Amino acid sequence: MDRSYHPAMTRVTSKVKAEGQTTFFCLSNANSVFISTILKSKGLENLFDQITTNPAEWDESGLLKLRRRIDPSGPQHSCKIGCSPNMCKGEELEAFIKEHGPFDRVVYTGDGSNDFCPILRLRSQDVVCCRLYRGLQKRIDQEGEKLGLKAQIKYWAGAWEAEELYNQLPKLESN
Q1: How far is it, in rounded angstroms, from Cα 124 to Cα 173?
Q2: Residue 90: phi, psi to the nearest 5?
Q3: For the segment 103-159, what is each residue's pLDDT rounded down to a tens digit?
């Protein structure tokens, strides 16, 4: 089951948002229709300050039309870490931080191998909440030290563990 459907994730994100002083940024290789459908179904449509994803819309015949965030006929990103052609998540994260930051600490939650590029851009005071047994953990284990990963890594397997991690964030020491 995807973490976005689990009640623990809904509880903890709502709690953190209500406590204030947190900027939520959704950086996803999914699409805008999928993400907005999930958020609306959970009453979280106002959770994120910004959502960066692939555009999508329903056409007149009821088909979902998906597009790449980076148009294949335009300039492409130059990522060498292994991001998908449709977006470099590292570049997107840096652009968001430049526009909305600076932030005392960034907490990045991810599970896919395409989440490796953005976490390489994080600092030692930042935290990565990495889902176990997925592509991101594998890349951290195999390439993290070699490529200079600085962020603190906290692992979780189920949404209830992610909820506990987020509840402990204020207690985690910032370097």
Answers
A1: 11
A2: -65, -45
A3: 999 999 999 999 999 999 999 999 999 999 999 999 999 999 999 999 999 999 999
User: CA 24 to CA 103: how far, in whole Å?
Assistant: 12
Nearest CA to 14 among 1, 28, 4? 4
CA separation for the pair 61, 133 (Å, rounded) = 40
Residue tagged 């819309």 (tokens): 57
| Distance linking the first and last C-alpha atoms of the chain | 34
The alpha carbon of 26 is separated from its chain's Cα centroid by a whole number of angstroms, namely 5
